[in-house]
Amino acid sequence: MVQIVGAFGNESGDEASAKFDLLTEIGAPTTLKDIGMSESDLDKAATLITTDLYFSPRSIEYEPVRELLDDAWNGRRPKIR
Fold first, then answer.
1. What does each C-alpha distance from 9 to 33, 71, 81 come to in angstroms?
2. Do residues 63 and 1 touch, judged by C-beta distance below 8 A?
3. Which terminus of the chain faces fewer neighbouring Cβ atoms within 10 Å, N or C?
């Protein structure tokens, strides 16, 4: 991951932030609303993500997923949690 992040010109080790910074720099969409998702669909998306279970080594809980979607909808820079 460090090499991938370095390729984006970011040495932090945070690939999500490095990608976000690159997209911002080139003027690409960085929010879910920019690509047509409505705010009213965030709850539905969070529910689908947390109830349509698939293998994951981590538990998938509604509130953190909903917060992540809200950040993505509003265009907040990703943060390591």
1. 27, 23, 22
2. no
3. C
pLDDT tens across 11-25, in order?
666 778 888 888 888
- CA 46/CA 3 separation, integer angstroms: 31
In single-letter form, the type of residue at position 31 comes to: T
pTM across the whole model: 0.76
Q: Which residues contact 31 (CB under 8 A, 6 or more apart)?
A: 72, 73, 74, 75
Tokens 């390729």 -> residue: 7
3-class state of residue 29 by DSSP:
coil
CA distance 75 to 65: 15
